[in-house]
Amino acid sequence: MEVSTRETDFGFAGGVYVRGDGSMLFVRPVGRPEAEWEMVARSMLGRALMVPLPDLPDPYELSEL
Predict the structure, then answer these.
(1) Would residue 22 be called left, alpha or beta, if left means φ above 0 and alpha means ψ between -120 and 50 degrees?
(2) Quick one: average pLDDT of 29-40?
(3) Is the Cβ–Cβ distance between 26 and 41 less than 8 Å?
(4) I want to staple 51 with a disulfide (CB 3.0 to 4.6 A). Which of 1, 44, 46, 61 is the partner?
(5) Does any domain span residue 64?
(6) pLDDT for residue 26 is more than 90
(7) Are 41 and 62 spatial neighbours (Cβ–Cβ below 8 Å)?
(8) How far, in Å, CA of 15 to CA of 27, rounded?
(9) How far apart are CA 58 and CA 26, in angstroms?
(10) pLDDT attached to residue 1
């Protein structure tokens, strides 16, 4: 697992890319609150590992591209 911190658009709270070898690259936006990042990162990790977790609170949502 690797975390890359990037300047992103205002509404972007984070992202994850699952590589062909199964490793993951998490993209953490600069300047977002630590608690927000932890919540979003855990939710993305759970989704990638297919672990059932509760939905994120509004206004957050996970999207798959």
Answers:
(1) left
(2) 94
(3) yes
(4) 46
(5) no
(6) yes
(7) no
(8) 5
(9) 21
(10) 86
